[in-house]
Amino acid sequence: MSISRNSYGILFESLCRGMTMLAFFVLVLILGKIFLNGYQIVTWEFLSMAPREGMTEGGIFPAIFGTIAVTFLMLIMVLPLGVGAAIYLVEYAGDGRAARIIRAAVNNLAGVPSIVFGLFGVGFFVLFLGRNIDAALGQGLIFGQPAMLWASATLAVLTLPVIIVTTEEALRAVPLSHREAAYALGATRWQVIQGVVLPQARAGILTGAILSVSRGAGETAPILFTGAAYFLPRLPVAEIPWLGIPMINPLDQFMELAYHIFIMATQSTNPTETLPIQYGTTLVLVALTFLLNLTAITLRFFFRREAAGR
Amino acid sequence: MKESELHLLEKSRSPAPGAKLECRGLSYFYGAHQALNGVSLTFPDRQVTAIIGPSGCGKSTMIKSFNRIGEVVSDVTVTGEVLLDGESVYGKEIDVVELRRRVGMVFQRPNPFPKSIYDNVAFGPRLHGITDRRQLDEIVEESLRQAALWDELKDRIRGSALDLSGGQQQRLCIARTLAVDPEVVLMDEPCSALDPVATAKIEDTIASLKQRYCIAIVTHNMQQAARVSDRTAFIYQGELVEVDETAVMFTKPRNKLTEDYITGRFG
Q1: ipTM of the complex
Q2: Nearest chain A alpha carbon to B118
Q3: What is the full DSSP assignment across A256-284?
Q4: Between chain A's N and C termini, which has fewer beta carbons within 10 Å?
């Protein structure tokens, strides 16, 4: 009896161990294949040059630049929106009916396929918002076309649930006893949030921000119709009027890593010939995402220490 | 004993000298659950009043009603009155923020903020608009001295409060409470999470604080009530059973229930 019971335990443990090994094996297989096929391509030239010869030669610099620029813009839009919403939901809205409905809506938003966001982006941002702004300005077609602005706005909507959920979790993790202590000292609600809750939640919020960036950087569908370009002979950069300082031009189209991989694999005249470039681009994208996650972990560690007053 | 009789009992005695805080016919509800039922009690200034009673009797609820901290986290209803210097704490014109500055609270478990020792103590004064460094330094030192922590910690006040021992953390919380210059200090079983040595230190601190503040301490430790308090009130099932000078209470309780409780027949 006891032997058979024990052997069930051993069986279960081996089963779980097997599953873990399998998951790990798949991961290693994918990353290994990408690395082995890509690492020779990724040279300084590959990283710093534009594509040449109908994108069968040269580098991917515009795509790297575009990816960073579009996710940067996305972050500027989504961070205040998401953090603000999460603070409202956790600290002010309580657990009423309205708050529950909003929470459910946010969770559902996280489950919507990204192509839906892409179509929404075209319909709402480009055609509705952009065209109406153009009509109001009367200066011709400026906003009513695919642009980095609309692509990053679409990505912002896509990553909104990531920010809201992680921020909510970070806020909830702040112990009630700390809030009570602050209230007991005569803090107002805002003072409790600003002096006790936010400093402790900062690491979590930051993690959410970086997770949203690594999510946004890897997306293709949302930017497909809203601003990503097949090929651009120039960087989406313009000078700020009167100041002469170059900056990202949010009204221009842009190249992007994930989209670059997609078109190389499906739209290119000769996908087999560009296979090394595809691997190289994939490796760069994976490395970029990995780097972002690593930053998230490092920052979290740093902020945890700081949050403890050490 | 009936609630009305208790009222009379409390009134028939000479009122305690310089009543700082007072509750009259105080009832307290968490949603539909009634935690306190018509409690009337006075807290004299510069004295320690201990509130004893078995777990769940409503003693913590009582002091949480005095600084209105209970309503921060729960849905509560309060009837009756709580008076601070004769002014109703639940009145319309009361400023809750100012009330909580005047009526400080030390909680059951030490709850220092994950900040430096200095920033913990300076937190309250900063809330109330003090930004001058020298003034803050003075307040921090003075508060830590009152909590008997200054000599232990003066060389590491920039260090994390979380690196302190439990007893030190609790005294830091006392210092933090004192830093906003309160008039009343409420303590909700401040030693229940501490060892005997740390408990003794907190009790010493309470004894010295008595000279400046009106103190209400909730405890389920009878010896502690006997050691630190001038007056003791016994609460049972949300009602005040008896209140008297501590010395009288622990030697000649008038109520059978009180006697049973302090002699350890239940609790």
Answers
A1: 0.89
A2: A309
A3: -HHHHHHHHHHTSS-TTTTHHHHHHHHHH
A4: N
